[in-house]
Amino acid sequence: MRADVHHVVDGTYLVHGSNTNWVILTEGDAVTLVDTGYPGDREQLLASLAEVGSAPEAVAAVLITHAHNDHLGSAEYLRATYGTPVYLHEAEVPHARREFLHQVSIGTVLKNGWRPGVLPWAVHALRSGGTAQIPVTAPQAFPGAGALDLPGRPVPVHTPGHTDGHCAYHLPGTGVLISGDALVSGHPTSRVAGPQLLPDMFHHERSRAVASLDVLAGLEGELLLPGHGPVHRGPVGDAAHRARERAL
Length: 248
What we know:
Elements: E1 4-9, E2 12-16, E3 21-27, E4 30-34, H1 42-51, E5 59-63, H2 69-72, H3 75-82, E6 86-88, H4 93-96, H5 106-111, H6 118-127, E7 140-141, E8 155-158, E9 167-171, E10 176-180, H7 206-217, E11 223-226, E12 232-233, H8 236-247
Parallel strand pairs: 4-5, 5-6, 6-7, 10-11
Antiparallel strand pairs: 1-2, 2-3, 3-4, 8-9, 9-10, 11-12
Helix pairs in contact: 7-8
């Protein structure tokens, strides 16, 4: 299956999987992979690496924004098969091991089934492994503060609310913010386009998710690469403010 790969700036690619995005950061022969899509997106994930001239063996690390199945999908596969380290915020490490689960329940989805787009999204999520048990056996917390010594030199930015340990990744050198689910530009269950929070049912603590938009608003950048929706071009701060206004 061909991957939907978009080259957004030198060395940075946004890939649209099946309802979820991931990001590839390249530097020479090495790659940083941010998120991995659903378990069912593995063929697309591997194809996207090939399309940018790389391979799973060249992935220096997998960075996870948060440990929901539509972002964690192939992280354990890469770790177990190629020895790829999987890094998350320290608060998200036990989530990746599935010591607990901060994810919308099937019951909550059914209660919201009357909302436009929810049932088609839910069917797709189930078929793609959205409820599968795929813990990462040995996830790791970031080795230190500040920029990571990986291709792209991403800087983790703790943005709790969607989950306790949700992290965005800021690339100051290229003006890119990889926002995960802390700030998106669309979703199959949303009826609006552009910068926004995901619908309320997806957040572990919505009030903290709203507050984290203020953290993102303070970052410099002109390219927003969200976990869902297309690339958004324009000041990251403006995008975060717009999402906050919509959320209130």
